[in-house]
Design brief:
The complex is a heterodimer of chains A (361) and B (240).
Chain A (H helix, E strand, L loop, with lengths): L1 H4 L11 H16 L6 H26 L7 H19 L4 H27 L5 H19 L7 E2 L2 E2 L6 E2 L5 E4 L2 E4 L2 H24 L1 H11 L1 H6 L4 H27 L1 E2 L6 H14 L4 H19 L3 H18 L4 H8 L16 H5 L4
Antiparallel strand pairs in A: 1-2, 3-6, 4-5
Chain B lengths: L2 E12 L2 E12 L3 E5 L6 H9 L6 E6 L2 E2 L5 H6 L2 E4 L11 H9 L5 H14 L15 H14 L4 E5 L7 H16 L3 E5 L3 H7 L2 E6 L2 E7 H6 L1 H9 L5
Parallel strand pairs in B: 3-8, 3-9, 6-7, 7-8
Antiparallel strand pairs in B: 1-2, 1-4, 4-5, 9-10
Helix pairs in contact in B: 3-4, 3-5
Classes of the chains: A mainly alpha (361), B alpha/beta (240).
GO molecular function (chain B): ATP binding; ATP hydrolysis activity
GO cellular component, one term (chain B): plasma membrane
InterPro entries (chain B): AAA+_ATPase, ABC_AA/LPS_Transport, ABC_transporter-like_ATP-bd, P-loop_NTPase
Chain lengths: 361, 240
Amino acid sequence: MSMLRKLNGPQTMGNSRAFWAGFVAMLAIALLYPAVSDPYDVGNVAYLLIFTLTALGLSLMWGYTGMFSFGQTAFFGVAGYSYGVISINLAASGAMTLLCLLGAIAVAALFALLLGYFLIYGRVSGVFFGIVTFATTLALAAFFGQTAGPEWAIGQARFNGFNGMIGMPPLELPWSGDVIVLEGNALYYFVLGLLLVIYLGLRVLVNSRFGNVLVAIREDPLRTELLGYDVRKYQLVAFVIGSSLAALSGGLYTAWGQFIPPASMGLPAAAMPIIWVAFSGRQDLTATMVGTFLLLLMFQTITVYSQQYALILMGFLLLLTVLLVPSGFVYGIARSLSLIGRRDKPGPEPVLRAGAEGPSS
Amino acid sequence: MTAILQTRALGKHFGGLSAVSDVNLEVAAGEIHCLIGPNGAGKSTLFKLVAGTYAPSDGEVLFRGENVTRRKTYERVERGMSVKLQVPSVFRELPVAQNLEVALQRKSSGRALEREKQRLLEFLQLQDDADRPAGILSHGQQQWLEIGMAVALEPALLLLDEPTAGMSPFETERTGEMIKRLNAEGMTMLVVEHDMTFVRQIAQRITVLHLGRVFAQGGIDAIIADPRVEEIYLGKGHGH
């Protein structure tokens, strides 16, 4: 019961009955959507939902804890390749594919723990935190890009350089003696369920005592330590959780398309989560989730005509956000509609400020 | 009286410059101990050595009988220290009440926490500002809020670095009242200060630092009457 009470609190917008009524209505629409749409579109929407998990992870790290990670794609990619390596070598099917997904997330989480440990305990903070995580994802992209030769393989799983790894199985869910292959509608419901659980779980987390400490660290790490908190431990936990959500995205994406390329960790890909989250409103999970979904939908619609234009538009949106609504468009709109914002702030904050202060101790 | 805090031959050098050297300081349980001295005397450096935000070059810090020289700041806080820095550092975007909650949740939860929070808001006279972001409070109010956060930990020793810096005379006076009230409830304090009016208002014992060393130590009356102390404050044009 006390867990449920934490769904609402100072760290989330939308704590009113009206909000939750709207939430239930949206959920109902999402549940009914496959009934009124064709499976191809439904699969596409599932694909968009997969990426919102990466955005939620970044919101937790950047918006709530003040750690500007530019490396979400690194964990996305590591989990994607790990899923390939594990599932191909085990020739996985059925419930085993889900275990492979968990294994892939575990590999990426361990990587996040190591990288995070050296960064946070090495007192790398602010923009340098962003630079190192960014360099990490670019280095990984470059590394996997040169794995074209047959010698680059783990067991049966070939890396295939720029073309990316292929041939991993889709996720399969055992269901009353049978298995459901997670694609189309089934994948959609699976991802929707995951997103629902993670969104609600993160709301509880940020409104808990733990979340209170995270936002305190964002505001002033030294003050937080002076209250007796081991700031770096909290930062590391937030970093691992946030990065693991990117890993979940990466694993799901790879299983969805049975494909993971190095470009998923390259420059344009790495910039995307930053743009989604900055545009949406990094300091709020709901704003991040809604904004990211809308941006992805728009991006995908435009990409059909021209990928270059879509990228330019993304850059332009980031510019507009920084100049006009530094706290994020969705966040800003929700607040001005007085959709329950309880915090009256002194004024707009520069978009990169929390990042520039970053983790320190 | 038992010493709650002791430093033994404590020193800190920055390159060739020795900011603090050979300081033996003793703070007895229950007292308000003021650390005074002209600008550059090493007060803030000594304060940071005690709080653990600086590591000493020499010597030891003992807190409640334990050697905490190698302990990190948060570990010292866990052991019963609480620190208010000179520059007000509150969680600017968080509501005033939540600022206090972050501190209070270390000791209590639920209704007990709510009760404590209301009591502190009242003590700090910030009831009307509970839901406003701490960043829009006045400078003096932010200082009080930070004192409130430090006090919320129910520390055995409260360290205050120039708690009245930038305050109006009225606010300074009120801060002195707060400090005396907390002391009357049994809180031991080490206060760095160079406003002598304020020191007269609160101090029970005083350590005078000069050029990084202990220059004089004793009761408030003896120190004020000491002509040498007056000289280092006034004689060299460092008057305050």
